[in-house]
Amino acid sequence: MKNRETAWRIFSNELNASVLEIQATEEKGPSYVVTPLGAKVNRVLIAGTLTEKENVGGEEEAMWKGRIQDVSGNYFISVGRYQQEASRAIASIEVPCFVAATGRVKLYTNPETGKTYITVRPEQIVKIDEGLRDAWLLETAKQTWTRLNNFKAASQDPGLKAEDLVKKGSSPAEAEGIIYALEHNDEVPDSMTYIKTLQAALRVLLPDREIDFGLPEDVASMPDEPEVTESMDIQDGHASKRSYGQLEDIILDMLSELDRDGKGAPRDELERRAEAEGISSIELEEISNILMDKGLVYEPNLRYLKRI
Amino acid sequence: MENEDLTPHIEEIKRVLKDKITDEQIHSELNKYLNEYHVGIEPAKRGIIRKYGGDDTHNFGSASIVKKVAELTGAEQNVDLQVKAVFVDNKTISIRGESKQIISGLIGDETGTVSFTVWDPGSLVLTKGDNYTFRNCYCKTFNDKVQVNVGKRGRIEALIGTEIDVPKRELDLSETVVKINEIRDGMNSITLTAKVVSFEERSITVRGEPRTVYSGILADDTGRIQYSAWKNIDVKEGDTVCIKYAYTKAWRGIPQLNIGDRCEVSRVDSDMEIADVDSSKTIAEMCAIGGGLDISIDATIVDLRTGSGLIKRCPTCNRSILNGTCTLHGAVEGIDDLRMKIVVDDGTGALAAIINKADTEKMAKMPFQEALDLAAAYGNDYVEREIASRVLMKRVRMRGNVVSDDYGPSMIVRSIDELKTDVREEAEALLKEMEAVF
Q1: The CATH number of B69-158 is which of 3.40.50.10580, 2.40.50.140, 1.10.443.10, 3.40.50.20?
Q2: Which whole number is the average pLDDT over A288-306?
Q3: Least CA distance to A210: which residue of chain B?
């Protein structure tokens, strides 16, 4: 039976932390990404705030990149020529707004660094109201809570087989994913990360309740953002014509130039200058993050970026 | 050759050619082959069958083969069996209004048992427990089971001096007591206590024979199931009954309870609590069961398939038509209709459904006339896209019967409504659950 792939409800931090991939075993067969909590995912249903979108393709052949923010981070989406309906839809959505999208999950590994990135390729994307966003938040929280508990229970029982989990009430797909994650994950996922996410979701849904599971208040580590590279089949993006190294140098030069009073370079000016150089705001963001990671720049405050 | 001797051959030709040939034609053809051209009977039969368009000559006409019961495939045209009569039933049936005596029952050898029918027994008497040679039988399949037929050409001879051991029929009388939600396809000897929700008597025609079937819905505290019986089980709506030795069979994935001849149906005094009419399931649960009646599913509309929006239907058969041509009725003036082919997903699985005009108007908030006007102005694709933008990602509650086929589960929708979730209440419940752990 060729059942349609389930659209999993997964918060962005769980999805983006996935490093396991199950490649298609047959031609045109589905491939899967396995999340730290053992969701074996081909398709997701995501919702949140579309905070930015950009056509990195051209007029002729649009290639949209964007971010959808949820309570735990961002989903990185890319809509290409194979997602016609979503491409048509995203073109007319004005940011920021609440959206929901279904899409396929792709895992990409940078061959140089070995780092993995997750993108979602929406098949459908529509504007939704806050009520629907809340309903999604609730549903995703409930399903994450269930996954977390099932995963925890399974991880305390070595030698457990998928059949045993099915007997205990899991669906075959759920059971397979959990076992695969247990067998292949090097690191045991930190359940606190997910509890924090659930806490954040409940705080949105129940704003007048003081919800506190007694967790430290540090922000969950942000996921790595997918780099724009040629191997991701992004055509005609400005960045792909220049290497990241080149772009980093350009930005560093700009920072020195714009830092007139020692406070750093004002973000808005930097963005304008970058734009003039053909570097989009998303690319700029990515490059600044890389430079920050490298310890070459820092943010004295939110509106400035300064070279060290 | 005398006419009398030809009877089995004539029967054989008729069986293959059915109504492609009349008796007179057979007689005249056989006469030509046998008496004018002096061809042997076997080549004559083959020749006649080919001439009149029979396609079944490959295992026809040759000498009979001997088989064991377990080797029967159902395609045998001429087979001999050495068997013990396990069960014999002399009955009168009516064929096209004429009553006819036949013998049917069960025969077996050491490899198994098979049901049989002697269509023209004459003075033949079969005795249960005696051994016989069934000669020149032909086989057919009915409901995937092989049946042995003894036609005019067949003969049955007493078999003396050979002992045949028929394996004890595996009549598993150890009953399994089940609840409705545990019922799956292919269960045997199950015992179910349930309340009769509905009971109806229907007259149907089975191979030209009028028969009465008794059917309806049973319910217990876990769900509902359709049942049917070939004999009057004498129950009425509201009765609580205990049914023993029933078996199940699925129709498009929905398990149904069959009350066969060996079932025992008894009334139970105590009143039984039944599940809410609405039995709420996840899509994963439906995938595991295969199907069910009166299922309620809460999910999100994740896709609108092509073929949604305005369509045309054949005025005669109501099928949807393309380019003004009905596959059955040719070129027709199609009637406009509005529908959605949706896919819903609840995070555990996906399910397809077709939504009718009234519900499409309601869910897409697009009156039929508006759809027609939009299509006239911008084309049908526009209508489809407009509907997509109005219904995608909506959360719905659908009720209906769930069936399964090669493409997974789908629902025959009886009602669909936008799902109003009390987010606060459910969030509070989740919070409580989490607080209990921390």
Answers
A1: 2.40.50.140
A2: 80
A3: B431
